[in-house]
Description:
By secondary structure, chain A is α/β, with parallel strands linked by helices. Chain A contains 5 helices and 5 strands, in the order βαβαβαβαβα. Chain A has a 5-stranded parallel beta sheet, sandwiched between helices. In chain A, strand 1, helix 1 and strand 2 form a beta-alpha-beta unit.
Amino acid sequence: MTATPRKRIYLAGPDVFLPNAIEIAKAKQEICFWREFTGVSPSDNQLSLDKGSPFAAGLLIYEQNIKLMNSCDLIVANMTPFRGPSMDVGTAFELGYMAAQSKPLFGYSNDGRFYTDRVIDSGGGRDPEGLTIESFGMHDNLMLEGAISSSGGFFKTQRIASMEKHYYTDLTMFEEIIKIITELM
Amino acid sequence: MTATPRKRIYLAGPDVFLPNAIEIAKAKQEICFWREFTGVSPSDNQLSLDKGSPFAAGLLIYEQNIKLMNSCDLIVANMTPFRGPSMDVGTAFELGYMAAQSKPLFGYSNDGRFYTDRVIDSGGGRDPEGLTIESFGMHDNLMLEGAISSSGGFFKTQRIASMEKHYYTDLTMFEEIIKIITELM
């Protein structure tokens, strides 16, 4: 009898910028473990970044994250808005990277509102600078939720106010997504 | 004698949200044409979106953009900050998508500052919410400039104040990038 190898899930999100980044990564990995997945976090990287320029260090982290993504079967992204009405751009990049590899994409957000409802409308569906506000009944730019839907994945949201302490860290939606993946695979 | 087919460049950016999106796309395509490239813009999509839900329309646009990207040899992204300190998330997704296909990535920004200098530092390299501010001598999240550098591409910036009318539309950096690509290919 051969054990089926556990599917590897890339844990993407602005979680890496949290003061308790390691703790959150571990909590996510535990949830994955209970459901018989391996959670893979950019916080797992063991890099010595003390040599070379800051740019070289950034490039090294990039290359390590690419290796981690290549080793994973699917991605679960924290798409909670980050420093503006949209999600973290590094995480958006990672969704695109996994989409091109035809891997299933999953995401969650702790801001349940549609994108249209997060950007100030100065009239006619345009922002104060006159730029069009997307309005497709999606929670962010259509390339993101479009990609998730097209990959056969799922996107879950709940509404936590952004001033709440657990806005970035609440894992209720993350747990739901992992449960859904268990049922699908 | 067989003519070499022109390389196809995917023109990514928040340009699609500009009031004069079509005009800007045409201006970029002309610059590409002079240098013997074909500029491919999401604005070229001829879709009938009047049937179905807004979500279905968004999904259709997603699928068309994916087809356009698959048909292109490289990408040039407008990475000027959009509604916050970072670039447009749809464009970030597209950079990730092209990176996974091992295509060369190029980008430009009309905001020449490093990311660190665009986010308010409340002390210790953290923002007012206590989240770490990346500091790698890069202009945005390391996944973006890391990907460009790693692909052998180039990133060019100039500094235009965001209140200036030509913040999103100035094509000086775009022209420089196209010139660089001409020299490389």
